[in-house]
Structures are given as structure tokens and as C-alpha cells.
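Chapter review. Work through the record for AbrB/MazE/SpoVT family DNA-binding domain-containing protein before attempting the end-of-chapter questions.
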Amino acid sequence: MNGAIKLSQEKSVTKRYSRKIGRMGNSLGVSLPKSLADKMNVVQGDEIEFIETADGEVLLRKVRHVELPEHVRPEVLEAFYDIFEEDRQIFDDLRDR
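C-alpha cells for AbrB/MazE/SpoVT family DNA-binding domain-containing protein:
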């Protein structure tokens, strides 16, 4: 599954996990069942991201930290992604031509 677990309420889901939400400082937190953590290849201290899709589904994915080449500054890459997101429709139109 490449470290990503899709949670949904569709009938095709073969495993369903239920957890209570608890307080973690000023935030809310939830624990992962060991079998799910094993599938995602996560351990204590790892970072996961929550991705909300247009259909309202939430994906959990282990954050992959990538080492940038020496000549690429993170702030330049971040600016590129911001511009890309702002102009996504233009890029999609160009791709579909």
C-alpha cells in the first residue's frame, strides 16, 4: 500500500478500526492500532499527514522527508509549489491539449 491507508465507509473496506479521541495538550489525538501502524510502517516519533479529498474522505500517509540537492533552496521549492497550486487549472488545460 506504499505506506498510505485509505479510510472510508464504502463496502469495499475490509478492515474497520474504531478509536476514541483523547486530549493531547491543547490538541485532540487518536491512537493507531498496531496492525495499522505496521501496514503504514510508522513508529513513535514518525510524522503522518492527513489528506482530505474532495469527496470528504481522509487519507493517512507517512510523511516522506526528502533530501533536496545542494543547489535547491527549500524556500524556492515552496514558492514553486504555491505558484503551481494557484495556476493548477492553467497547467491542467495545457496538459489536456
